[in-house]
Amino acid sequence: MKWEVVIGLEIHAQLATKSKIFSGASTAYGAEANTQACAVDLGLPGVLPVLNAEAVRMAAKFGLAIGANVARRSIFARKNYFYPDLPKGYQISQYELPIVEKGQIEIGLEDGVTKLIGITRAHLEEDAGKSLHEDFHGLTGIDLNRAGTPLLEIVSEPDMRSAQEAVAYMKKIHSLVRYLDICDGNMQEGSFRCDANVSIRPQGQQRLGTRAELKNINSFRFVERAINVEIERQIDVIEAGGEVRQETRLYDANKNETRTMRAKEEANDYRYFPDPDLLPVVLDEKYLDEVRATLPELPDQKQHRFEDEFNLSAYDASVLTASLETADYFEQVVKLTNEPKLSANWIMGDLLGALNKNDLGIEQSPVSADRLGGMIKRIADKTISGKIAKAVFDAMWQGDATADAIIASKGLQQITDSGAIEKMIDDIIANNPQQVAQYKSGKDKVFGFFVGQVMKQSKGKANPQQVNELLKHKLK
Amino acid sequence: MTLKKQDVENIAHLARLAINQADIPSYVQNLSDILALVEQMGAIDTEGVTPMAHPLDAVQRLRPDIVSESNQRDYFQQIAPQTEAGLYLVPKVIE
Amino acid sequence: MHNKTLVELAKGLESGEFSSEEVTQHYLDRIERSADSLNCYITVTPELAIQQAQAADQRRANGEAGRLTGVPIAHKDIFCTKNIKTSCGSKMLDNFVSPYDASVVVNCKQSQLVTLGKTNMDEFAMGSSNETSYYGSVKNPWNVERVPGGSSGGSAAAVAARLAPAATGTDTGGSIRQPAALCGITGLKPTYGRVSRYGMIAFASSLDQAGPMTRTAEDAALLLNVMSGFDEKDSTSVDSPVPDYTASLHHSIKGLKIGLPKEYFDGGLNQGVASVIDDAIKHYQSMGAELVEISLPNTKTAVSTYYVVAPAECSSNLSRFDGVRFGHRCESPKDLEDFYKRSRGEGFGPEVKRRILIGAYVLSAGYYDAYYLKSQKLRRLISDDFKQAFQDVDVIMGPTSPTTAFKFGERMEDPVSMYLSDAYTIATNLAGLPGISIPAGFVDGLPVGLQIIGNYFKEAQLLNVSHQYQRETDWHRKAPVMDIL
Asked: Which three-class secondary structure state does DSSP give residue C409?
């Protein structure tokens, strides 16, 4: 049987506000436990929520960026359940009238194919605290610093058909929220997390299969793995004559397997109802126009601009605009060098390669855009060759000297003095009569031997173009 | 709607309320009576009526994004039943 | 001294006839001498009161006194008071010392009022007789075998018994007006949003509203001046200027159009109460008011509607009482579920549990539309009835409560009969309208309250209409005879 995979994602993006969504406590990450949990976050008796303007603005910004309806009127509701890291016994969220509805986003797949993924809704809600399971005499510790941090929950349509598509979508959303500057995107710190709804159905069947929800997957790599093992599990279950149960499952990265967390029958009855402590959020045209005016250039727009302005291929432009940081890095280098193609090659080749190998983001790159630009300038003005540049790049990666300093201290400047090169060539011709004879008898291949000799004698610093020209002339 | 013992037990679980077995019959009775009172609502036709969640037709005010609160952990935890290392302690949470 | 109204106390303090410390001490002595046999107070704060009184006297000496500087009052124990036990009448919060002040309390402190203590109340304000309090029933000072009404029964009884010159209360379905009526005092529930709810322990957030409980309408105007105002900490607080509620007290009410809803004078109303209310209304007529019969057809479903809306909100509001961060926690729980269930099961009394259960039920999957959504639609209809009525009339009058104070235990076995005690007060909470109860007479030695309902933000008019009546009558001056004092 051929199976079709159906995936929908729920992404939780922490909004990068200074204070919490309903209180004036700080959202800064990493503070000592419970030092950023104020009376409102603790749910003390009598406290009340007041909505953070910035959280609303960020949600509206996201909605406008994905061409969605930004609700002129949205409502906060209470989602009721008991959990120790949920201080009020309910989470303030949006249910019936979310702030963002019906958007879409384009993802790029292999071989340049693109696909539109529908976004059902995005709603504002407050995050919960954290349960710490280290042993406190068999008890659990509760840290409420994160309680009340604003979240935008972005719910996709079940439009993805493979783990790869799911990852591409998640990366695209990640890139977008970074572009919009509404989320720091830090997955280690939990600022960007994802639940995946996964089901399978026989190819050609319309009706959706029973889905399992994979909870809280916090890296791109794990999303792909978790979905793939879940797909395999579901196929195994069905092909063995069983049925997939609707349930919540947890992905265990160490064992690379998913396991049951909560069956559907144990699912909570959340008893949603409009939060009486909060009034309808009403946004008018003027407000939305103002937010629209603050939208930055979005990934797709930037890609097209890169193609036009810098004469880059669609592929190069898409790689360079996949993250805001990479795009900014590239533009900074081009500003210094005015060499778009050369800069693109270096960034996409040596730089991203080294970063990947070391598991670093471009914002953590040991070689800054200024230093890389400095080096590319020297390639462009022929101070160094591309080959020497690799050695310069390695040196920049290891230390913090500029390209110019490395070139000077190691004497790596290209030899462009024709006199000096001619002298070398003359010596080599004089010392290798046999090869000269071979060349002159028509063995063109021997030309390479002469080039090699010159480069060897010049320790790689002779300008290759000059060497070529002069050799051809001398060997005539 | 007349509730049964099982209904009361289910809601009590949902609301995380321990109720003595001996008291259940009186809850069944009282809650059924209250629901009977409540069901008088059914006498009125509300077709097409817009639900009213708030007494005033007001809209949500927005607060500027400013950090106004400072750390009061020790003070707040004076009233906490059990804490350690700045954490609130509860029976083991099993995921 | 203790028979003086707030106005008279303020005058005496201003003229230097007595100091705040003297007034405060006088009240503290009375509370102590009575050994609080009425059980009005859950907490008395003598040291704090004297400290605040001395500070108030100092302010006055410095020429920095406001209108009510140094006047003592009591707070219903639903208002969070920093570093003072705030129990909300519940075992759940018996150990809760609030780390912050409610906005109402802050406002009173800023006006340099003195806090005598915290008054008894039905547990989490759920009750109409004060019998659900963890701290025992409050007794009605007019007849100690009878209830004072609820939920602000401690405040009402304290003011009636001259154990406080005035007190704060809260009203979710009649909890200021009904005990005011049953204890023979003046109690005002303002328009929803007029007084901040921040720090007032929530029962039903879309219905709760705090207000003054005093002997006279004039006093209520003074205390409302202090209590009300916009609060940025409460999203439902209304950002509109607060008038000086005393400014219009003396306006004539000639030509005032009084609406008399026929539904408020129907079968459920006690005959004695009906005749007292009739007399009061006739009195208004004699003062030049015009009577208009009106109908509030949907008002008969107000109690049903309320017992969906209020429990639904309360079931969620009371989820935070879980024994994790504050409040009662059970002994040696065997696991997390046991921990939740027993902490909450032990901390809450039976009436609170009933309402939480009803609330959880009406919101649960499959019942939401039939109960909760239906109640929200009826709420609209009930509210529209009032809107319609206020096109033709200035105020609406009727009884506050269908009966006078009833005996202890009389309605405890049958929650529904208790709920009907609030049949006339509940609709105004659903609509968010202001209402006041003022003393209008007696039946068999028990006070009867006249309820006056106004249009949105017409508190000044309600106080004016009440004050004009109190200028010509002395029901509000009557004090219960108490041999203990």
From this structure: coil
| Closest chain C residue to the Cα of B28, Cα to Cα | C354
Asked whether residue A32 carries a pLDDT value surpassing 80, the answer given is yes
Predicted pLDDT of residue A384: 86
**Torsion (CA) C290, C296, C302, C304 in degrees, nearest 10:** 140
Q: What angle do CA C160, C161, C162 make, to 5 degrees?
A: 90
Cβ pair C172, C125 in contact under 8 A: yes
Shortest CA distance from A28: residue in chain B? B67
Whole-number Cα distances in Å, A297 to A107, A181, A307 = 17, 11, 14
> What DSSP string runs through C263-293?
GGGSTTS-HHHHHHHHHHHHHHHHTT-EEEE
Q: A308-319 as b/e, with b when 16 or more CB fall inside 10 Å?
A: eebebeeebbbb
pLDDT band at residue C248, thresholds of 50, 70 and 90? Answer: very high
- pLDDT mean across residues, chain C: 96
Q: What is the pLDDT of residue A267?
A: 65
Tokens representing A196? 């995946």
Centroid of chain to Cα A225:
17
Half-sphere exposure in the Cβ direction for C267 (13 Å, CA): 1
* C198 in contact with chain B, both atoms CB, cutoff 8 A: no
Q: What pLDDT is recorded for position A11?
A: 97
Given the residues C76, C91, C139, C189, the one annotated as active site = C76
Residues of A in contact with B95 (CB under 8 A): 250, 261
In this prediction, residues C294-307 reach a mean pLDDT of 95
SS3 A66: coil
Sign of CA dihedral A227, A231, A237, A243: positive
3-class secondary structure, C341: helix
Question: CB A34 to CB B87 under 8 A?
Answer: yes
Helices vs. strands in chain A: H and E counts, helices first: 17, 17
Record: contact A276-C88, CB cut-off 8 A: no
The helix/strand/coil state of A104 is: strand
CATH number for region C6-256+462-477: 3.90.1300.10
User: Phi, psi at residue C157, to the nearest 5°?
Assistant: -65, -40
Residue A152 backbone dihedrals phi, psi, to 5 degrees: -110, 115
**pLDDT one-digit tens code per residue, A88-133:** 999 999 999 999 999 999 998 877 788 999 999 999 999 999 999 8
CB contacts, 8 Å: C201 with chain A: 45-46
Positions of CATH 3.90.1300.10 in chain C? 6-256+462-477
User: Would you state the pLDDT for residue A264?
Assistant: 63
A165, A23 Cβ separation under 8 angstroms: no
Query: Mind listing the pLDDT tens digit for each residue in A156-180?
Result: 999 999 999 999 999 999 999 999 9
* Alpha-carbon gap: C83 to the closest alpha carbon of chain B (Å): 10
Q: Has residue C485 got a pLDDT over 70?
A: no
Q: C301 and B60: CB-CB below 8 Å?
A: no
The β-bridge partners of C448 are: C441
Which chain B residues are Cβ-neighbours of A32 within 8 angstroms? 73, 86
Output the average pLDDT for chain A. Answer: 92
Per the annotation, the verdict on C151 as an active-site residue is: yes
* Angstroms from C317 CA to nearest CA on chain B: 12
pLDDT (tens digit, 9 = 90+) per residue, B10-33? 999 999 999 999 999 999 999 999
Kindly determine whether residue A52 and residue B59, on different chains, have CB atoms separated by under 8 Å.
no
Mean pLDDT of C322-344: 97
Angstroms from B26 CA to nearest CA on chain C: 9
Length of chain B, in residues: 95
Q: Are C467 and C438 in contact (CB under 8 A)?
A: no
CB contact under 8 A, A23 and B69: yes
| C290-294 vs C257-261, strand pairing mode | parallel
Residue C177 has pLDDT above 90, yes or no: yes
Cα→Cα distances C144→C147, C407, C440, Å: 8, 9, 21
pTM for the full model?
Answer: 0.92
